[in-house]
Amino acid sequence: MNRLRQKYQKEIIPVLKKELGVKNELAAPRLKAIFLNTGINEPQGQKEALKEMSEQLAVITGQRPVITRAKQAIADFKIKEGDPIGLKVTLRGQRMYDFFEKLVTIVLPRVRDFQGTKKTAFDGHGNYSLGVTEQLIFPEVSYDKISKTRGLEITITTTAKEDKLAMRLLELLGMPFAKPELAKGKLSDERRIPRRKDNLS
Protein backbone atom coordinates (compact mmCIF):
# COMPACT_ATOMS: atom_id res chain seq x y z
CA MET A 1 0.00 0.00 0.00
CA ASN A 2 1.15 3.52 -0.82
CA ARG A 3 2.78 5.32 2.12
CA LEU A 4 0.47 8.32 1.78
CA ARG A 5 -2.60 6.10 1.70
CA GLN A 6 -1.45 4.44 4.90
CA LYS A 7 -0.90 7.84 6.49
CA TYR A 8 -4.42 8.88 5.51
CA GLN A 9 -5.97 5.80 7.08
CA LYS A 10 -3.88 5.72 10.25
CA GLU A 11 -3.20 9.40 10.97
CA ILE A 12 -5.37 11.75 8.90
CA ILE A 13 -8.77 10.09 9.36
CA PRO A 14 -8.55 10.33 13.18
CA VAL A 15 -7.65 14.03 12.91
CA LEU A 16 -10.53 14.75 10.54
CA LYS A 17 -13.01 12.79 12.67
CA LYS A 18 -12.00 14.80 15.73
CA GLU A 19 -12.15 18.14 13.94
CA LEU A 20 -15.51 17.34 12.34
CA GLY A 21 -16.93 15.79 15.48
CA VAL A 22 -17.99 12.57 13.77
CA LYS A 23 -17.55 8.93 14.77
CA ASN A 24 -17.89 7.24 11.39
CA GLU A 25 -14.66 7.35 9.41
CA LEU A 26 -16.66 7.28 6.18
CA ALA A 27 -17.82 10.81 7.05
CA ALA A 28 -14.25 12.08 6.76
CA PRO A 29 -13.41 13.65 3.37
CA ARG A 30 -11.06 11.72 1.11
CA LEU A 31 -9.52 11.89 -2.33
CA LYS A 32 -11.89 10.74 -5.05
CA ALA A 33 -9.96 11.07 -8.33
CA ILE A 34 -7.26 13.12 -10.03
CA PHE A 35 -7.68 14.27 -13.62
CA LEU A 36 -4.88 15.44 -15.91
CA ASN A 37 -5.87 17.27 -19.09
CA THR A 38 -3.88 18.83 -21.89
CA GLY A 39 -5.07 20.48 -25.07
CA ILE A 40 -3.29 19.86 -28.37
CA ASN A 41 -4.27 21.76 -31.49
CA GLU A 42 -1.48 21.82 -34.04
CA PRO A 43 -2.40 22.24 -37.71
CA GLN A 44 0.79 20.47 -38.68
CA GLY A 45 1.75 17.20 -37.01
CA GLN A 46 -1.33 16.76 -34.83
CA LYS A 47 -1.05 12.96 -34.91
CA GLU A 48 2.63 13.03 -33.94
CA ALA A 49 1.99 15.57 -31.17
CA LEU A 50 -0.76 13.41 -29.69
CA LYS A 51 1.47 10.35 -29.78
CA GLU A 52 4.39 12.14 -28.15
CA MET A 53 2.32 13.69 -25.37
CA SER A 54 0.47 10.44 -24.83
CA GLU A 55 3.77 8.69 -24.15
CA GLN A 56 4.83 11.43 -21.76
CA LEU A 57 1.57 11.32 -19.80
CA ALA A 58 1.84 7.54 -19.58
CA VAL A 59 5.30 7.87 -18.06
CA ILE A 60 4.18 10.62 -15.68
CA THR A 61 1.06 8.86 -14.41
CA GLY A 62 1.68 5.17 -15.04
CA GLN A 63 -1.52 5.03 -17.09
CA ARG A 64 -2.30 5.47 -20.77
CA PRO A 65 -4.33 8.62 -21.51
CA VAL A 66 -7.45 8.77 -23.65
CA ILE A 67 -7.98 11.18 -26.53
CA THR A 68 -10.49 13.98 -26.01
CA ARG A 69 -12.48 15.07 -29.04
CA ALA A 70 -14.30 18.25 -30.01
CA LYS A 71 -17.99 18.15 -29.14
CA GLN A 72 -18.76 20.73 -31.79
CA ALA A 73 -17.07 22.40 -34.73
CA ILE A 74 -15.09 25.63 -34.21
CA ALA A 75 -14.55 27.32 -37.55
CA ASP A 76 -12.06 29.91 -36.28
CA PHE A 77 -9.69 27.13 -35.20
CA LYS A 78 -10.50 24.86 -38.14
CA ILE A 79 -11.79 22.21 -35.78
CA LYS A 80 -14.51 19.80 -36.84
CA GLU A 81 -16.83 17.92 -34.54
CA GLY A 82 -15.09 14.75 -33.40
CA ASP A 83 -11.56 15.99 -34.11
CA PRO A 84 -8.94 15.00 -31.49
CA ILE A 85 -8.09 18.10 -29.43
CA GLY A 86 -6.23 16.76 -26.41
CA LEU A 87 -5.56 14.03 -23.91
CA LYS A 88 -6.98 13.08 -20.53
CA VAL A 89 -5.93 10.75 -17.73
CA THR A 90 -8.18 9.78 -14.83
CA LEU A 91 -6.39 8.41 -11.77
CA ARG A 92 -8.09 6.55 -8.95
CA GLY A 93 -7.05 4.27 -6.12
CA GLN A 94 -3.38 3.40 -5.79
CA ARG A 95 -2.20 5.38 -8.82
CA MET A 96 -4.06 8.45 -7.57
CA TYR A 97 -2.23 8.34 -4.24
CA ASP A 98 1.10 7.61 -5.96
CA PHE A 99 0.68 10.62 -8.22
CA PHE A 100 -0.45 12.96 -5.44
CA GLU A 101 2.49 11.99 -3.23
CA LYS A 102 4.93 12.54 -6.10
CA LEU A 103 3.34 15.88 -6.93
CA VAL A 104 3.63 17.34 -3.43
CA THR A 105 6.92 15.78 -2.33
CA ILE A 106 9.00 15.79 -5.53
CA VAL A 107 7.49 17.77 -8.39
CA LEU A 108 6.36 21.05 -6.80
CA PRO A 109 9.49 21.47 -4.63
CA ARG A 110 11.59 21.31 -7.83
CA VAL A 111 9.92 24.40 -9.26
CA ARG A 112 12.12 27.46 -9.18
CA ASP A 113 10.99 30.21 -6.78
CA PHE A 114 8.08 28.05 -5.66
CA GLN A 115 6.24 29.72 -2.78
CA GLY A 116 3.21 27.50 -2.45
CA THR A 117 -0.06 26.79 -4.24
CA LYS A 118 -3.09 29.07 -4.07
CA LYS A 119 -5.79 28.42 -1.50
CA THR A 120 -8.35 30.06 -3.76
CA ALA A 121 -8.20 27.49 -6.59
CA PHE A 122 -11.20 25.51 -5.32
CA ASP A 123 -14.40 25.30 -7.35
CA GLY A 124 -16.94 25.67 -4.54
CA HIS A 125 -17.63 21.92 -4.47
CA GLY A 126 -14.50 20.61 -2.77
CA ASN A 127 -12.38 20.19 -5.90
CA TYR A 128 -9.00 21.81 -6.50
CA SER A 129 -7.35 22.73 -9.82
CA LEU A 130 -3.68 23.35 -10.44
CA GLY A 131 -2.34 24.47 -13.80
CA VAL A 132 1.27 24.06 -14.90
CA THR A 133 2.79 25.59 -18.00
CA GLU A 134 4.94 22.66 -19.06
CA GLN A 135 5.39 18.95 -18.55
CA LEU A 136 9.08 19.38 -17.73
CA ILE A 137 8.41 19.87 -14.03
CA PHE A 138 7.97 16.09 -13.86
CA PRO A 139 11.34 14.35 -13.46
CA GLU A 140 10.30 11.48 -15.75
CA VAL A 141 10.20 13.82 -18.76
CA SER A 142 13.53 14.48 -20.44
CA TYR A 143 14.07 17.90 -22.00
CA ASP A 144 16.04 16.29 -24.85
CA LYS A 145 13.19 14.00 -25.83
CA ILE A 146 10.37 16.49 -26.34
CA SER A 147 9.61 18.56 -29.42
CA LYS A 148 7.49 21.15 -27.61
CA THR A 149 6.57 22.12 -24.06
CA ARG A 150 2.88 21.79 -23.26
CA GLY A 151 0.78 22.80 -20.29
CA LEU A 152 -1.29 20.56 -18.07
CA GLU A 153 -4.33 21.08 -15.89
CA ILE A 154 -4.48 18.92 -12.79
CA THR A 155 -7.83 18.64 -11.03
CA ILE A 156 -8.00 16.95 -7.64
CA THR A 157 -11.52 15.88 -6.70
CA THR A 158 -12.55 15.01 -3.15
CA THR A 159 -15.66 13.78 -1.37
CA ALA A 160 -15.77 17.00 0.67
CA LYS A 161 -18.90 19.06 0.14
CA GLU A 162 -17.24 22.28 1.24
CA ASP A 163 -14.01 23.87 0.05
CA LYS A 164 -12.72 24.43 3.58
CA LEU A 165 -12.97 20.70 4.30
CA ALA A 166 -11.24 19.84 1.03
CA MET A 167 -8.50 22.36 1.83
CA ARG A 168 -7.96 20.79 5.25
CA LEU A 169 -7.77 17.33 3.67
CA LEU A 170 -5.21 18.40 1.08
CA GLU A 171 -3.24 20.26 3.74
CA LEU A 172 -3.01 17.14 5.89
CA LEU A 173 -2.01 15.12 2.82
CA GLY A 174 0.89 17.48 2.21
CA MET A 175 -0.31 20.05 -0.32
CA PRO A 176 2.12 22.99 0.09
CA PHE A 177 -0.34 25.86 0.24
CA ALA A 178 1.14 29.36 0.17
CA LYS A 179 1.38 31.19 3.46
CA PRO A 180 -0.90 34.25 3.75
CA GLU A 181 1.98 36.69 3.34
CA LEU A 182 3.06 34.95 0.12
CA ALA A 183 -0.39 34.42 -1.40
CA LYS A 184 -0.06 37.55 -3.53
CA GLY A 185 3.50 36.81 -4.67
CA LYS A 186 4.86 35.34 -7.86
CA LEU A 187 2.33 32.52 -7.96
CA SER A 188 -0.77 34.70 -7.77
CA ASP A 189 -1.84 33.04 -11.00
CA GLU A 190 -1.76 29.26 -10.50
CA ARG A 191 -1.17 28.66 -14.19
CA ARG A 192 2.11 30.53 -14.28
CA ILE A 193 4.37 27.97 -12.61
CA PRO A 194 7.90 28.29 -14.03
CA ARG A 195 9.91 25.38 -15.30
CA ARG A 196 12.01 23.27 -13.00
CA LYS A 197 15.55 24.32 -12.08
CA ASP A 198 17.50 21.84 -14.17
CA ASN A 199 15.78 22.78 -17.44
CA LEU A 200 16.03 26.55 -17.48
CA SER A 201 17.41 28.13 -20.61
TrEMBL record:
Presence of the UniProt keyword Disulfide bond in the record: no
Coiled coil ranges (UniProt) are none
The residues covered by the Large ribosomal subunit protein uL5 C-terminal domain are 84-177
Domain Large ribosomal subunit protein uL5 N-terminal, chain residue ranges per copy = 24-80
Q: Could you tell me the Gene Ontology terms of the biological process aspect for this record?
A: translation
Gene3D superfamilies, per database record: 3.30.1440.10
The record, for SUPFAM superfamilies, names:
RL5-like (SSF55282)
Which superkingdom?
Bacteria
Query: Listed GO cellular component terms?
Result: ribonucleoprotein complex; ribosome
Keywords associated with the record? Ribonucleoprotein, Ribosomal protein, RNA-binding, rRNA-binding, tRNA-binding
GO MF, one term, reads: structural constituent of ribosome
Cite a single Pfam family from the UniProt record: Ribosomal_L5_C
- NCBIfam families reported for this sequence: PRK00010.1
Family per similarity comment: Belongs to the universal ribosomal protein uL5 family.
Subunit organization: Part of the 50S ribosomal subunit; part of the 5S rRNA/L5/L18/L25 subcomplex. Contacts the 5S rRNA and the P site tRNA. Forms a bridge to the 30S subunit in the 70S ribosome.
Q: What is the role of the protein in this entry?
A: This is 1 of the proteins that bind and probably mediate the attachment of the 5S RNA into the large ribosomal subunit, where it forms part of the central protuberance. In the 70S ribosome it contacts protein S13 of the 30S subunit (bridge B1b), connecting the 2 subunits; this bridge is implicated in subunit movement. Contacts the P site tRNA; the 5S rRNA and some of its associated proteins might help stabilize positioning of ribosome-bound tRNAs.
Record protein name field: Large ribosomal subunit protein uL5
Species of origin reads Candidatus Chisholmbacteria bacterium RIFCSPHIGHO2_01_FULL_52_32
